[in-house]
Amino acid sequence: MDTTTEVTIVGAGPYGLSIAAHLRHMNVNFRIIGSPMHTWRTHMPKGMHLKSAGLSATLFDPEHSFTLKQYCRENDIPYEDEGLPISLELFTQYGMEFQRRFAPNLEETKLQSLRKQGDMFELVLDNGSKFLSRKVILAVGIDYFRYLPKPLDGLDQSHYSHSAEHHELEKFRGKEVVVIGSGSSAIDMAVLLHEIKARPILVARRQALNFGQKEGRVRTRLSRLVAPMSGLGPGWKNLFCAAMPGLFRYLPANFRIKVVKEFLGPSGGWFIKPRMKDIPILLGYKLLSATSAQGKAELQFIDVKGEQHSIQVDHVIAATGYKAQVNTISFLNPEIELAIQLVGKTPRLSANFESSVPGLYFAGPSTANTFGPVMRFALGAGFASRTISRHLQRVLRQHPAGGQDMPVPQSIATSQYQR
């Protein structure tokens, strides 16, 4: 083994970096592995804007000294808490600067394997090096959870892709492209393809596209009472989900899963709608099958009237989102995967984000079924980083390195995840 460490963070997006900032402030011995803001830098199309308002598009250091607002102020960049879209480039640049300030020890490498080694974890990196860690936090983000509709399996691999595979769109110039989906990824993709002179068609099962509403800085007292503002938008439900993820965990599991699945729903940003006027849109179309023939992708759809339609295009982009599930995290040893108790297909977690495998923590979208839909957004990194770091500081102080951790009785190890 190369070395041993107290805590290892796997992932360097908003969650991993925010947790690192908190642990560093507490002088906890940790390593952080990953590529900073990787999904944002390489798996989202150039030119897009975040659907989240400025007040929600931030990372979290323990003293709240370096928000997106502060970064914009330092660099003379226009910023508003609400009403001014945040570009992908701005959010990425801010995240990279956050990493340089608060996680300078980041190791830009990839985890290949994670398995138990006694009461510790063995981590193997892509360069073959190994080390042991007492605690591991998986803040891997959404890239492990891409969802592709099953009918697309009938296509040659060159004829379809997930929207996360495209940061550069220039290769589609002049090409006919079907974009499948009704959320912001699909809408943004169709608009950006159109603007680089591709020929997109947006196709969705839903019978209507939804767009968020622009929220101005000035609201009446009545509107603030009826629909108070939160980091997830206006409304009491949004406020509860944003402000009280710890309480959300105590709701019945089936209800939590339902809320997370239905929360907010697919929609585009309010600012994108005017740019869609010249894009063909087919709504209420369900994909039945897909085949490759004569260098084209041929898709069969059925509409709400039961009529079938065939479309031939050069390429299909599935902007069909992500479905968090433990079994798609490829570096997990099967023994660990089987030991993780689940809520739906995601880990059942304690109030401190610890899974049923003692010492293994999760953060980010995979925790939404426990702590609520706020964990699908960067905003959730605030609660997660505070909770996990305080817990680890307390645990590591009670059982310092070189000491012997007390074994956890199985009845206790199980009961804390069922409360």
How would you portray this structure in words?
With 419 residues, the protein is of the alpha/beta class. The chain has 2 domains: 238 residues, FAD/NAD(P)-binding domain (3-Layer(bba) Sandwich); 114 residues, FAD/NAD(P)-binding domain (3-Layer(bba) Sandwich), CATH 3.50.50. Helices cover 28% and strands 21% of the residues. The chain has 13 helices and 18 strands. Strands 1, 2, 5, 6, 7 and 18 form a 6-stranded mixed β-sheet that branches. The longest helix has 18 residues. The relative contact order is 0.16.
Question: What's the structural blueprint in terms of helices and strands?
Answer:
Blueprint: E1 4-10, H1 14-25, E2 30-33, H2 38-42, E3 49-50, H3 68-74, E4 86-87, H4 88-102, E5 111-117, E6 120-125, E7 130-138, E8 160-162, E9 176-180, H5 184-195, E10 199-204, H6 221-226, H7 236-243, H8 245-248, H9 253-262, E11 281-283, E12 286-293, E13 296-302, E14 308-313, E15 315-318, H10 334-339, E16 342-343, E17 346-347, E18 360-362, H11 368-371, H12 381-398, H13 410-418
Parallel strand pairs: 1-2, 1-7, 7-18, 8-15, 9-10, 9-15, 10-11
Antiparallel strand pairs: 3-4, 5-6, 6-7, 12-13, 13-14, 16-17
Uncertain residue segments: 403-419
Global Rg = 22 Å
- Assign the CATH superfamily of the largest domain: FAD/NAD(P)-binding domain
Overall helicity: 25-40%
CATH fold descriptor of the largest domain = FAD/NAD(P)-binding domain
Euclidean distance between termini CA atoms: 37 Å
How would you sum up the major sheet? 6 strands, mixed
In DSSP terms, counting alpha (H) and pi (I) runs of 4 or more, how many helices?
13
Helix-strand makeup class = alpha/beta
